[in-house]
Amino acid sequence: MLRLPRFDFVEPTSVQEAVMLRSRAGADGAYVAGGTDLYPNMKRRQQTPRVVISLARVEEMQEISGTPEEGMRIGAGVTLTRVATHPDLLRHYPAVAQAAALVSTPLLRNMGTIGGNLLLDTRCNYYDQSYEWRKAIDFCMKKDGAICWVAPSSPRCWAVQSSDGAPVAVALGAHVTLASVRGARRIAASALYNNDGMRYLTKEPDEMLVSYMLPPVGSWRASYQKLRRRGSFDFPVLGVATWVDFASDHTVKAARIVLGAIASFPMEIPEAADALIGKPLDESSIAAAADAAYHPAKPMDNTDYTLSWRKEMVRVMVGRSLAARGQ
Length: 327
Known about the structure:
The chain is an alpha+beta fold and about 325 residues long. The chain is built from twelve helices and twelve strands.
């Protein structure tokens, strides 16, 4: 049985109190919301905070507010179940709701939060194992070791970004608000991620994700498609988020195509978007965009299925996402 290490547990009731507690704890502190990522990592000794700061009682992080016309704000502590079933999100931001609904199982969606999913730790076959298993191979670069077993000659870690929510946030051009004792700052969701399995977030270690801001609705449509072995529970081996904005003549005036679970960050493919601009979104333009997304996609042998098949599926899943258009 994997057991949690000993730690102190505190429950602030405001963002200000939470960031103060984190500042006092220093490197020994960690925030937790639903705990569906942190606690398993702690059991595997991938993370060993001495002070765990629960955000469950911070009310402003549990709210969904705003309007589709002005943009909506989702508190980082809102559960994935609430995101997946919220009427306004289902109607006006179906890609956000769909991505949340595809995370893991109902029980874990009832606990897991949208903020936790956006900040999900990168994953790898060599990293997501017990302490004893990892010790037997002399650990890996991401934790306690010096070698990336996915690419042993690489100077960097290739653990993969496996969040369902992150590609959608980037595709929509959403923003997030981060807070620390230094104050709050708002950044584009795309600026939150690094293409590095170890340093996969740009936020400072003591910053907490407070909220997730969705753009106003307009003439755009978005969709999310997920590839995994089983119909539930599994992390994506490929996620595709697409966002397409239409001109008055129904041709595409702007687009974003973002791949998840293919690199250490949500990977936007500008070449695929360019294949759509100025054209109707039809079978021909979708095929051209899918082909353009295929070429730069370079999955690594660090998760389920073979990397060559995962690459081939990029064409298929991009095509499906664009054909769906959030309908």
